[in-house]
């Protein structure tokens, strides 16, 4: 526990200051590559895209029904028109619409030039070739106008943007099959620690399986990143230093877990200091206090704590925004909102805490959050069962059931 006024607490950097320092220190990648639309999901758009065509390209029907000219309407009375042909989606009606005529039309089909209205098929009565229009028929309805979605020459998507499936759909609707995106950010990650055992091997006394490496692989899965898992490095200063230096020559970012604290075998910060530069080390968050950020040559370095929950928290709160910025994506903030806490939460002032919670919503739409259980930074099981962070500010000294708290969901589904 840290007293808010203790020398240690005062030496810790607040999370906002840490994020500001990162923001000021990192330079986004600036080289670009062409990507086919098929490979562009999640990539960062580097050049704005303009539409070469109007979308829609033609006036077309928004409904299945009948296209007609409003000049044939009977001034508020029911009226009849004769069907003279059909306009199918992809196969327009090729004739001329004469006075007194209408055209059978389907959704997406081109509206004949002389028509300015479409009526839903459910609103008419069909008698052979004669269509009976009701008195309340409205003019100028159910037609999608040329360019009403996007005008020819208008900006479809401005840069920078991390392309979503919807963006790809929009680009495809303009016939664009290639975009200019930022090159991938090259990321290498290691685990450090003598106790770590690779999956598939039996556990010897005192050893543990390496969960961080697999987890980081998952956290880093992003089309904007090319990620290389460089394995486990034992707690050996020389080996660590050699690995860091070599990786710094080949990657934009190195992420390590473990060895960043103050134990006898915690060499990460010391090595960063000797072969690069430390921007900050230790931040006022829980879990995740020992976090070293700096640079080795041109390579950014994140030395995360060893405890798995601390790895995830520091990744989400510190590393992820930094990587987004480095990859050239626009900065964004996590979605946070207020929920009523149904558990008692223990907390000492001094550090911002990211406790793990289970979020629910009642029938009226109000949000509630319960503690996910054990909050130790090694308790991955309760984090696996949780769906959100309960974000408790530095000065908070505990929460009573019924108090309002800030929550940050891990995803948009509860
Ligand atoms: P350290 O920061 O190296 O002192 O590690 C803190 C705690 O995290 C220790 O209990 C380590 O055994 C554990 N730890 C470190 N690295 C890993 C890893 N890759 N997977 C699981 N636990 C780890
Ligand atoms: Mg260690």
- Unreliable parts: 1-5
Tell me which ligands are bound: adenosine monophosphate, magnesium ion
The N- to C-terminal Cα distance equals 32 Å
Number of helices: 8
Largest sheet, strands/sense/barrel: 6 strands, mixed
- Briefly note the CATH topology name of the largest domain: Molybdenum Cofactor Biosythetic Enzyme, Chain A
Question: Multimeric state of these chains?
Answer: single chain
Helix content range of the residues, please?
10-25%
Task: Give the integer mean of the pLDDT values.
Answer: 96
Instruction: Tell how many strands the DSSP assignment holds.
Output: 28
Radius of gyration: 30 Å
- CATH superfamily grouping of the largest domain: MoaB/Mog-like domain
Number of domains: 4
Strand content: 25-35%
Quick take:
This protein has 414 residues and is an alpha/beta fold.
Could you characterize what this model shows?
This protein is α/β, with parallel strands linked by helices. The chain folds into 4 domains: 15-31 and 183-327, Molybdenum Cofactor Biosythetic Enzyme, Chain A, CATH 3.40.980.10; 32-55 and 148-182, Molybdopterin biosynthesis moea protein, domain 2; 60-144, Molybdopterin biosynthesis moea protein, domain 3 (Molybdopterin biosynthesis moeA protein, domain 3, Beta Complex); 337-413, MoeA, C-terminal, domain IV (Beta-clip), CATH 2.40.340.10. The protein contains 8 helices and 28 strands. The chain has a 6-stranded mixed β-sheet with strand order 8-5-7-6-10-9, with no helix packed on it. A 6-stranded mixed β-sheet has the order 18-15-19-23-22-20, sandwiched between helices. Strands 24-26-25-27-28 form a 5-stranded mixed beta barrel. β22 and β23 (299-304) form a beta hairpin. α5 packs across α6. It is elongated. 38% of the residues are buried. Residues 191, 193, 195-196, 208, 210-213, 257-261, 263, 266, 305-308 line the site of adenosine monophosphate (AMP). Magnesium ion binds at residues 193, 235, 258-259, 265, 306.
């Amino acid at each position: 526990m840290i007293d808010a006024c203790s020398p240690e607490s005062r030496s810790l950097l607040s999370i906002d200051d840490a994020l500001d320092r990162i923001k000021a220190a990192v330079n986004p990648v600036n080289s670009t590559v062409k990507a086919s639309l098929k490979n562009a999901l999640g990539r960062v758009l580097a050049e704005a895209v303009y539409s070469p065509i109007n979308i829609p390209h033609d006036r077309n029907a928004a409904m299945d029904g009948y296209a007609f000219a409003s000049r044939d309407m009977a001034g508020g009375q029911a009226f009849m028109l004769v069907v003279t042909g059909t306009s199918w989606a992809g196969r327009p009606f090729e004739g001329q619409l004469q006075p007194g005529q209408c055209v059978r039309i389907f959704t997406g089909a081109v509206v004949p030039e002389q028509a300015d209205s479409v009526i839903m098929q459910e609103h008419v009565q069909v008698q052979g070739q004669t269509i009976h229009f009701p008195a309340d028929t409205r003019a100028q309805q159910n037609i999608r106008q040329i360019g009403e979605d996007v005008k020819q020459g208008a900006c479809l998507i401005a840069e920078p943007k991390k392309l979503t499936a919807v963006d790809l759909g929009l680009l495809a609707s303009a016939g664009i099959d290639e975009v200019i995106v930022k090159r991938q950010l090259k990321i290498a990650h290691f685990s450090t620690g003598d106790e770590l055992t690779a999956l598939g091997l039996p556990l010897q006394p005192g050893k543990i399986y390496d969960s961080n490496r697999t987890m980081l692989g998952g956290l880093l899965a992003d089309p904007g990143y090319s990620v290389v898992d460089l394995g486990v490095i034992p707690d050996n200063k020389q080996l660590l230093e050699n690995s860091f230096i070599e990786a710094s020559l080949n990657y934009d970012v190195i992420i390590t877990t473990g060895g960043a604290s103050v134990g006898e075998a915690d060499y990460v910060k010391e090595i960063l200091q000797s072969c690069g530069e430390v921007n900050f080390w230790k931040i006022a968050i829980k879990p995740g206090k020992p976090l070293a950020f700096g640079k080795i040559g041109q390579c950014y370095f994140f030395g995360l704590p060893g405890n798995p929950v601390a790895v995830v928290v520091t990744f989400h709160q510190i590393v992820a925004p930094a990587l987004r910025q480095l990859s050239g994506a626009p900065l964004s903030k996590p979605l946070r909102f207020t929920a009523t806490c149904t558990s008692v939460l223990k907390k000492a002032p001094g550090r911002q805490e990211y406790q793990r919670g289970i979020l629910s919503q009642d029938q009226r739409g109000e949000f509630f959050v319960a503690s996910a259980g054990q909050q130790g930074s090694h308790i991955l099981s309760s984090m696996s069962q949780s769906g959100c962070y309960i974000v408790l500010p530095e000065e908070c000294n505990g929460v009573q059931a019924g108090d309002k708290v800030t929550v940050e969901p891990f995803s948009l589904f509860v």
